[in-house]
């Protein structure tokens, strides 16, 4: 039976419900999987109520009431986050889902900006930019469901970060409701604005712990005239690094993606994904997906890709390569990379990591992490892949063939500790782009202790003294 401390009394629930109207206030039993499960099945949400506000004003009223009544609230966007930050954890918490705030508010062609609601889906933003002959470079495998508010709150990285930076680099202005219900009206389009502390950068990457983002001004770029996508097959991680150096030298700013995949990941994707094909005739130990773009012409993109691959062949780095011959084939090449996360699911348990190390250390990191994992769990199958150009590796480990899934997953923390110890040896990060959420909050407290963590706590206490905004996520106060 619930005690007085773990439920919200009915009168208060009614007041929250009235803000959004009955049709947009869901009881937990009505909310179901869509709101209360998450992609990795690691967390199962518990909540008193799911609210779906339809305007910024409704968000502000919800937060003001939460502040007044000291009710914890959890912001949720597309619910694709991989660290549990968007999941409420008790029947004392209210989930605030932003999906109904999904408008593209304005496109400024001359200034190349787009002003959007926080609940706008990333794919919709891409399409709106494209319709105006421009492009928004943030791109993730989850782009069909994730929302810009979630992207900014998690400072998402993705495949465009190599050339254009992370979500933080792509945002000029933020509108948000702060934990006391007041509005931060920062929808500015200025590239230069040094009027004191930039609160935009506090809210970006805060994972909903410092306020609810309701709108943003995004930077747009001219759409490239030409795009070339290719796969290269290589024999070692050292060769992938050498290829990166050649690509950077010959393509410069035209190199817009440099992703890597291991053969085992390629095989899992081929086995478990409909409609994908091996891009090359023979298998290779490692694959790199390169993308080169040109704002000048199709020919320039094509010549640049040719130059990169020719140099790499001449240097004996690349075993084989395939250049996409059409837009459709280019999309298929990308699909192969993007499906890799899902293709590990049918292979049983998978212990995940989202780490970064200095780019030059990647080969040694892969060797040492592999050694550490296999000596603890013989037969485990590392599937490291990701954003090589950013030093960001999704060091996933699939269970040994035929192993018991719960038994393997029971070793999640142990395997994480082993891999993260290797990351520390290279002065890397145990959270490159997915954030901290609840999954990594203990590790952050343990490893960032000292003045940096204390400064983070002081900021949290100053803005959210009653800890109503996504409590227990990221930072422990
Ligand atoms: C197949 C797949 C591929 C992925 N690839 C990448 C990748 O390449 N790079 C990468 O960085 N991530 C990746 N992710 C993770 C995830 O998609 C990103 O973290 C994404 O930015 C989350 O957006 P969302 O709208 O789903 O946010 P949610 O999952 O709903 O929320 C994420 C966090 O942000 C907070 N939040 C959400 N909306 C708001 C708001 N409006 N105001 C304040 N706080 C808010 C939540 O409380 C939570 O802490 C991937 C996920 C999947 C499933």
TrEMBL record:
Domain called FAD-binding PCMH-type: residue spans: 43-223
GO biological process, one term: respiratory electron transport chain
Record-given protein name: FAD-binding oxidoreductase
InterPro entries noted in UniProt: FAD-bd_oxidored_4_C, FAD-bd_PCMH, FAD-bd_PCMH-like_sf, FAD-bd_PCMH_sub1, FAD-bd_PCMH_sub2, FAD-linked_Oxase-like_C, FAD-oxidored/transferase_4, Oxid_FAD_bind_N
GO molecular function, one term: catalytic activity
Species whose genome carries this gene: Fulvimarina endophytica
Entry keyword set: FAD, Flavoprotein
Family, per entry: Belongs to the FAD-binding oxidoreductase/transferase type 4 family.
Domain of life according to the entry: Bacteria
Cofactors named for this entry: FAD
A Pfam match: FAD_binding_4
